[in-house]
Amino acid sequence: xxxxxxxxxxxxxxxxxxxxxxxxxxxxxxxxxxxxxxxxxxxxxxxxxxxxxxxxxxxxxxxxxxxxxxxxxxxxxxxxxxxxxxxxxxxxxxxxxxxxxxxxxxxxxxxxxxxxxxxxxxxxxxxxxxxxxxxxxxxxxxxxxxxxxxxxxxxxxxxxxxxxxxxxxxxxxxxxxxxxxxxxxxxxxxxxxxxxxxxxxxxxxxxxxxxxxxxxxxxxxxxxxxxxxxxxxxxxxxxxxxxxxxxxxx
Length: 250
Fold this sequence. Notes:
Layout: H1 3-16, E1 21-27, E2 30-36, E3 40-42, E4 45-49, H2 52-61, E5 63-68, E6 75-83, E7 88-96, E8 115-121, E9 127-136, E10 139-145, E11 159-167, E12 186-201, E13 206-215, H3 217-248
Antiparallel strand pairs: 1-2, 1-5, 3-4, 4-7, 5-6, 6-7, 8-9, 8-11, 9-10, 10-13, 11-12, 12-13
């Protein structure tokens, strides 16, 4: 029996018992959860009610993850169609999700534009620039171009020093000496850390490097303020996307 059909049978049982399921998506680093039940099962598809904002996320990502106590793992599904009038989504093509999905204990956000960063290795002093693509209070991920990637340096567990440039407006109340020269002003924070993961993204010709970071308490306060600001911006962005989607389909 195909995996898709086996997973569908599990979801059919959840539908009959009206077991609660959660829709999980990661939007710009921010986890979005919506608790619902399966409204209908037909053929190889299921229909689930959702919220307007979550439907906007499904419209753009074309996939979602299903979580339920009836199944001991996350199920990845593709969005087949949306019924905006009924605020429901039709899902199909089910498969077991990668184990790391939904495992992060810290809120991690993506910057609107990649933040400039520098990675330095303690044992060699080797240093190279990188583009920060998401950050939490305890870690970050960065992109590095594959042609220049020093594989020997980027081994899991290697100790590093990291510098990250943040918009200075975040730290004015914390760092009295920060520059106040306008919207382009930056403040650079430093942290010690270790390489946690290395993933080649062949199609993009780059590596994604995950790292565990240990910020000084004052620097951590700046990072937390940045994360809170980005959370608010991401939620506002999703609300605007939802409003635009419903206007276009009136």
